[in-house]
Amino acid sequence: MRSIKTLAAGAAIIALAAGAAKAEESVEVLHWWTAGGEAAALNVLKQNLQKEGVSWKDMPVAGGSGVQAMTALRARVTSGDPPTAVQMLGFDIRDWAEMGVVGNLNDVAQKQGWDKVIPAALQNFAKYDGNWIAAPVNIHSTNWLWINKAALDKAGGKAPTNFDELVAMLDNFKSQGIIPLAHGGQPWQDGTLWEAVVLSVGGADFYKKAILDLDTAALSGDTMRKVFDDMSKLKTYFDPNFSGRDWNLTSALVIEGKAGAQEMGDWAKGEFLRANKKPGTDFVCIRFPGTQGNVLFNADQFVMFDVGGDKRDAQLKMAAAVEDPSFQIAFNTVKGSVPARTDVPGDQFDDCGKKGIQDVAEAAAKGTLMGSLAHGYAQPSAIKEAIFDVVTQHLNGQISTDEALKRLPEAVAAAK
Ligand code: BGC
After folding, report:
1. HSE-up of 218 (CA within 13 Å, CB side)?
2. Do residue 212 and residue 287 come from a single domain?
3. If you take atom 6 of ligand 1, which residue's CA is the nearest one?
4. Residues 170, 283: one domain?
5. For the chain, what is the total number of helices (H) and then of strands (E)?
6. Confidence tier at 379 by pLDDT (50, 70, 90)
7. Of 385, 382, 380, which is closest to residue 94 (Cα–Cα)?
8. Domain count, the chain
9. Are residues 191 and 287 in the same domain?
10. Does 51 fall in a domain?
11. Which of 60, 101, 181, 248 has a CA positioned 20 to 30 A from the CA of residue 85?
């Protein structure tokens, strides 16, 4: 008879062998979720996949909005060694699909009924030539303002609803001796603030005309002049160290009460939550004043590169895990975004999340759910970057408003 000890050793060997077999199935994931709230959300996905026997090889490339991650991706693909899965936004997804290097997710999409539950605005980018080529993780939006609640209370407690009220609040923050408006001076952050101001000054029709249609008159007319003037005004509320500062360090200033407010996408909420701050108690989330009822969206999606048969099963498991409704809740409540599926209940989301879900649904219904320029959903990268150049140079005082109005349509035309 075999001893208990031998049986136990045998069981251990079997367990090890099973572990080794599981470890063979893995995904290498390129992403830019390196800030505290982002990494916490990503962990939810890592753990879910590990439970399914898929191990995770992390390829983080820091840099908000993924500019550096996309450079790293190009290098990997050029050297013939693409990662298995890549976080990606809007037009970049389309570019890679056009090159014919991404995998087809139709099987899992059909099994989980993605066609019925993923909003059309996302399908527009997640499908190419009628085939699913990306798994949307979430819906973020960029036209938010994050306000320190104690500072707002001292300023009278009423959140601003238009530009004049915003300026009055910022003046009050100034008199409190804190940084009125926390901003990180990087082109994508300048662009994120600018697109909110475009929407605030001109409304949804103007955003569509200028940013989605690239109408020359809209890019150089009086409404755009007011946009640049408002940007110059907002800059007077930045602190002297804004240049080059990362978005999460900028959020930290608001979290710690060193600054009053930050304009940023709802990934900023992930940082507040990570710091144990509660919406409505420690911070207040509002639509950027003047943009209520309209949403500039961006959605993180995972694109699976065509890396050969043996990795495919793990890729499909990852895509299925991403669209699982309970994952959508667990991930997005931490990340600050709202679910990419319309059938996921919102009751476990905090008040900012609930507002986000409702805003997206309302904007989609009335046709004002519009792609964010700064986060890849309004124009291809070349045009986005051409616009960033003008916006950043103007914000840094290198060119005047007259010059910006002249340069904007020229830069867009050259990048087309
Ligand atoms: C992404 C977010 C991310 C943010 C800052 C955005 O483009 O969609 O998921 O948190 O950049 O890195």
Report:
1. 18
2. yes
3. 65
4. yes
5. 19, 15
6. very high
7. 380
8. 2
9. yes
10. yes
11. 248
Residue linked to tokens 């939550």:
273
Instruction: For residue 250, count other CB atoms closer than 10 A to its CB.
Output: 30
Q: Do residues 296 and 371 lie in contact, with contact meaning Cβ atoms separated by under 8 Å?
A: yes
pLDDT in tens, 181-217: 999 999 999 999 999 999 999 999 999 999 999 999 9
Whether residues 397 and 262 fall in one domain: yes
- Do 404 and 315 share a structural domain? no
pLDDT tens track for 293-322: 999 999 999 999 999 888 999 999 999 999
Give percent of the chain above pLDDT 90: 94
User: Domain limits at 205?
Assistant: 142-297+372-415
d(CA 99, CA 103): 11
153 plus 302 within the same structural domain: no
* CB 230 near ligand 1, within 6 Å: no
| Token pair belonging to 255 | 């979290």
- Amino acid at the residue 292: Q
Residues 45 and 164 in one domain: no
Domain assignment of residue 4, yes or no: no
pTM exceeding 0.70 = yes
Burial class (CB in 10 A: 0-12, 13-18, 19+), 284: buried
Per-residue pLDDT for 14 more than 80?
no
Buried (b) or exposed (e) across 79-93, using 16+ Cβ within 10 A? eeebbbbbbbbbbbb
Please answer whether residues 87 and 301 qualify as being in contact, where contact means their C-beta atoms are separated by less than 8 angstroms: yes
336 lines ligand 1 (CB under 6 A): no
Closest CA to 194 of 404, 406, 415: 404
- The H or E element that residue 288 is part of is none
Protein residue closest via CA to atom 12 of ligand 1 = 64
Atom of ligand 1 nearest to the CA of 37: 10
Q: Confidence class of residue 127 from pLDDT cuts 50, 70 and 90?
A: very high
CB atoms within 10 A of CB 53: 16
Instruction: Find out whether the beta carbon of 372 lies less than 6 Å from any atom of ligand 1.
Output: no
DSSP-assigned beta bridge partners for residue 385:
none
CATH number at residue 156: 3.40.190.10
